[in-house]
Amino acid sequence: MKAVIYIEGGSSGPNSKLGQQECQRGFRKLLEKCGFRDRMPRLFASGSRGEAFNDFKNAHNKKLYSGFVAMLIDSEDPVKNPEEPWLHLNNRTGDHWNQPSGTHDDQVLLMTTCQETWILADLLVKNGSQIPVDLENRHRDRVLADIQYATKGSYQKSHGRQFNFLGAVDPDRLSYLKSFARVRRILQEKLSA
After folding, report:
1. Structural domain count, the chain
2. Is 105 helix (H, G, I), strand (E, B) or coil?
3. pLDDT digit string (tens) for 54-102?
4. How sure is the predictor about 156, in pLDDT bands with cuts at 50, 70 and 90?
5. Which of 17, 46, 63, 134 is deepest in the core (most CB within 10 A)?
6. pLDDT score at 76
7. How many angstroms separate the CA atoms of 49 and 15, rounded?
8. Considering Cα of 105, then 136, then 190, then 38, what sign does the dihedral take?
């Protein structure tokens, strides 16, 4: 089965090529460590989460791919029920995204509340700390502040540098995060078909 994932990440605009390549490289490394090396989906860095949604809708509506089509985006806010991401995206102030006809919840892969949650969780476990129970319920600004503290200010979200951190993540250290466990489970199901 062919699979395609549209990812929120990589800058958009005239100088976006490097950021998009770094985004795809970081997620590719993470997925390879998850065991998907021989069944890697095609990864497209779309830029903003809105652009990822538009790319996803376009691929779905035009039936550009015969296999699994998904989008991997930040939830931006805590998610009440991780198994109902379309409900979250429809209800979230700032989004109010309607679920495209014929799509399913397993086509929305959320990083709750943001990609940095995964990176921070990895850093905490790597340094011998416990993952806070409320980590996925923290506002993204707090997660960004926490990651700055954990990296002593070396984490930068510019020019694709954050994807170096993402590519270094050990997926086994993220098993406690509901959003990551869900993404891994869905990809395990969809990429083995």
Report:
1. 1
2. helix
3. 999 999 988 878 889 999 999 999 999 999 999 999 999 889 999 999 9
4. confident
5. 46
6. 95
7. 18
8. positive
Strands (E), 93-183: 108-111
Q: Which two tokens stand for residue 132?
A: 């806070």
pLDDT band at 143 (very low <50, low <70, confident <90, very high): very high
Could you please report the per-residue DSSP string of 48-87?
Answer: SHHHHHHHHHHHHHTT--SSEEEEEEE-SS--S-TT-HHH
Question: Which structure tokens are listed for 71?
Answer: 């989008």
Q: Which domain holds residue 25?
A: 3-191
- Residue the block writes with tokens 């997620």: 27
pTM value > 0.90: yes
Computed over its alpha carbons, how large is the radius of gyration of the chain? Answer: 16
Beta bridge partners of 111: 74
Any residues with CB less than 8 A from the CB of 174 and at least 6 apart, and which? Answer: 118, 121, 122, 180, 181
User: How confident is residue 193, by pLDDT bands cut at 50, 70 and 90?
Assistant: low
**Single-letter residue type at 135:** L
Bond from prior residue into 151 cis (ω within 30 degrees of 0): no
Closest to 166 measured CA to CA, from 175, 156, 176: 156
Q: Which amino acid is at 149?
A: Y
Spatial separation of the C-alpha atoms in residues 58 and 78, rounded to whole Å: 27
